From TrEMBL:
CoA binds at R193, R194, G195, K196, T312, S524. Residues 532-610 form the AMP-binding enzyme C-terminal domain. Its cofactor is Mg(2+). It comes from the Bacteria. Its EC number is 6.2.1.1. This is Acetyl-coenzyme A synthetase. Catalyzes the conversion of acetate into acetyl-CoA (AcCoA), an essential intermediate at the junction of anabolic and catabolic pathways. AcsA undergoes a two-step reaction. In the first half reaction, AcsA combines acetate with ATP to form acetyl-adenylate (AcAMP) intermediate. In the second half reaction, it can then transfer the acetyl group from AcAMP to the sulfhydryl group of CoA, forming the product AcCoA. Mg(2+) binds at V538, H540, V543. Residues 30-83 form the Acetyl-coenzyme A synthetase N-terminal domain. The gene is acs. It catalyses: acetate + ATP + CoA = acetyl-CoA + AMP + diphosphate.
Amino acid sequence: MSNESLANLLKEERRFAPPADLAANANVTAEAYEQAKADRLGFWAEQARRLTWAKEPTETLDWSNPPFAKWFKDGELNVAYNCVDRHVEAGHGDRVAIHFEGEPGDSRTITYAQLKDEVSQAANALLELGVRKGDRVAIYMPMIPETAVAMLACARIGAAHSVVFGGFSADALATRIQDADAKVVITADGGYRRGKPSALKPAVDEAADRADTVRHVLVVRRTGQDVAWTEGRDLWWHEAVGRQSTEHTPEAFEAEQPLFILYTSGTTGKPKGILHTSGGFLTQTAYTHWAVFDLKPETDVFWCTADVGWVTGHSYIVYGPLANGATQVMYEGTPDTPHQGRFWEIVQKYGVTILYTAPTAIRTFMKWGDDIPAKFDLSSLRVLGSVGEPINPEAWIWYRKNIGADRTPVVDTWWQTETGGIMVSPLPGVTGAKPGSAQTPLPGIAATVVDDEAREVSAGGGGYLVLTEPWPAMLRTIWGDDQRYIDTYWSRFEGKYFAGDGAKKDDDGDIWLLGRVDDVMLVSGHNISTTEVESALVSHPSVAEAAVVGAADETTGQAIVAFVILRGTAAETEQLVAELRDHVGATLGPIAKPKRILPVNELPKTRSGKIMRRLLRDVAENRQLGDVTTLTDSTVMDLIQAKLPQAP
Ligand code: ATP
Ligand code: MG
């Protein structure tokens, strides 16, 4: 990257104060920032007391061997006990833990007491299969309650799980099983996806043939489809788990006991096995879930729409909400099955109060039209969250207005697989929100923006987002590769964690994420953020979604090429393209005007819904496409290439 810091182009002046009633009853007030600033470790020690420890920690942080952190290291706890048993012991056994909604319309309600029984049975079954503390178990599942049960059962016996997203191929599964040396795989015959059963077991069979570490495969019956069976290795969940006792006494493990390995989504390169441990991870996920969403466990119904195969599902479907004794919705399928109002129907059915979803979903809803959510009663909603990519200000406004009745706060939460929990986000009862900005490091979190020389930028400056102090839910290493951990995250700026994202600080010192530094464009010597140009395009009424890349250009170094998806009725004319180019020029300045704008029907996205800009760059530079295996739908690229006029 050049020495020119990111140009600061976008001006967004809209502000939204917290609703008065929410602010008056908020879990967290502005004092939390002061308190954490005065005594950061004391603040986290206090948050750790949200958990029930078998042995209370006396030491908060051991940072004697950076960047390898130990949090609460002499403390002992059982993560599953914290997520399940203690709520039952506190008299909340009848509280609903999970409202499960299957894609075909089947549903199941699971109370904390039932969850305790199921997790205990699954823990007993894993023990019977020879799984012990410190072992690894791979989980390759649809979005069904057994997935959470399986994760908690691993945690309960001190085994680390490695959840592999159910949409990944046999090949991806095999490499992950091998990398983590997993001896048991938990899967299902299949799950429902877009109105039909989609098989999972064949991929496990193929992967287990290749990875010779696998001794047993535990199979949940979900769809009833035929499965191949390897006698001695394969076991049905309903038999092997179903016949177990519902009694299991949880053992306490050290705070640094590995809890899970999760491979990053692979937007940029070879996936990394991110290792998370127990006490610090659970402390931060419990705290942030309570603080950022203002969770009231007695009355709220929380719904995080992520797949449990991503970190968002780990931290904000399984661990954070359950540690807090929350009631939540879990949905198996896609947002347009059987109709485009499915999400809103679910919000209405369960009276969801807190919704946590991704910008890619929000932009899709914008494209489908305002009339769809308008048909449902969404008045139960009181806090909306966003995660996964920078949210364009216009998508933020649409979300607040059409889903939140122009009343609910929107919290834009920045974090990563590596950070384990939310790091930078507004607080719904405290922060005056700015559409498109994650704004403020949470209490106890030290994040800032630095320039190429690692100097903190002043208000109005742009550069790189870094974390300057260790945090409880931080990754502990890359599984089996300490050196890659140091090289990837701690080498760019000495003593600081480099997140890989570009960011700027506005005049108030609030943080705006500007996209991955790998995606930043260099035009006539200026670093320009893809996010800002995309947001400018999406702010035009005819554009639903945009992806922008820098393509090699003889005169300017790189030229901006934009791919746009038009909203419902907009016609694809030369006139509109010219209008869009001028619109970007007027919004951000002439330097940011795209050289080419190409209307397309779809954009290439990873399975976690993020735009894959490197493939668009290949297209824009007339190159052979790179690896497309992590795309949701690889035919998208054929369509885009077919539309492309030959480059000038
Ligand atoms: P890989 O690291 O393998 O390339 P990935 O970065 O997509 O994959 P995740 O850990 O799921 O894997 O995503 C974290 C990244 O997502 C962040 O580094 C950032 O680029 C982006 N991101 C997440 N939330 C936000 C947000 N609220 N605002 C801006 N960017 C976000
Ligand atoms: Mg990443």
